[in-house]
Amino acid sequence: MDKNTKMIVGAVIAIVVLWGGYALMGKQSVPATNEPIKIGVATFLSGDLAALGENIVNTAQLAVDDINAKGGINGRQIQIIAEDAKCDSKTGLSAVSKLVNTDNVKYIVGGMCSNGTIAAAPVANEHNVVLMTPVTGGRNVDEAGEYIFRTANSDLLAGRNIAEAMAKKGYKKVGVIAETTEYTIDIKKSFEQRANELGLTVAVAEEFQPNTTDFRTIAAKIKGENLEAVLVASQTGISGGNLIKQMKSLGINAPVFSDFLLVLNGDVKKILGSFEGIYFADPSYNADNAGLKDFLAAYKVKYGKEPVVPFHSAATYDDVQLLATAIKAVGDDSVKVHDWLKANVKSYKGFMGTYSIDQNGNSDLGFTVKVVKEGVATGI
């Protein structure tokens, strides 16, 4: 082989080797670290609670816009992907499954009802997906799994705080009427337990199916027992509004206590005319926080209206910020983010106030019982 031939062969071999190397590299999975970090939002975007879900998505997006404008997380932008979870277990599971298996998200803000969160929890736990809920307060979420976190106020504390408020007002003979959903039954059970501890007599304890409109039997029982106060717990507030209206039609003047959803629903206000005199468990959050006030003002500018539920906005904002802080600290690794959240969220100062997350992933935030006086919610 002459010198020229050897040079040609050598060049060909070099080209083949280089081409093979590039081909091999093309087949390898090379992380695209400049791609956005995806945060899923699974919440109620249709049905009776759609306005609340829209509030959660808008808040998450506005929080992300602020982070992205400041350079993102370690140079990467954040992308919000929203899915409709409605307020049922089947749709909640479907929404989270789609986010995890199709969109490949590793972090989810789960603004769902308790049933949806519980149904979706196994998917999040199996795939090491961090799911943080700013709204789900059900007792069963306490033990939903290693990757489920809650910055929402616990429903168990709502029932307890209402019983304590009744005792503070001097009421002795009381009642509780609850819709048969996980959310409201949790409130009912915790109320009964705390009422008994405080020496109150729970003379009427009734449950009703969702979408019930005829409460004449229950209202008659309340009237017959001559209760001093009654707790009405309903999922959307609509049924509760119908019950209260029928109580009034029978001349029942016992003070009504409720969960916060009743006094937030404009349709309930149409049913009752006003919320005057109604006591309700208002989720504790730092309403006077200057940063929260600025954020709510920015929300109004961007969306042309105020948040439907300010504390949902506060909790959602905190969820996004906690995820962003954790990812910045340990990288885009959901296992490490999980560990960071469990270890570091202690006396955290956020829009919800100062709180800690325990080893079950739950915050220690409670409720403040207020009453509507002259159209304004005030402490008792």
TrEMBL record:
Residues 36-361 form the Leucine-binding protein domain. The keyword Lyase does not apply. It holds the Pfam family Peripla_BP_6. One of its GO terms (biological process) is amino acid transport. Gene3D superfamilies: 3.40.50.2300. Keywords: Amino-acid transport, Receptor, Signal, Transport. SUPFAM superfamilies: Periplasmic binding protein-like I (SSF53822). It comes from the Bacteria. The keyword Nucleotide-binding does not apply. Belongs to the leucine-binding protein family. This is Extracellular ligand-binding receptor. It comes from Candidatus Wolfebacteria bacterium GW2011_GWC2_39_22. The lineage of its organism: Bacteria, Candidatus Wolfeibacteriota.
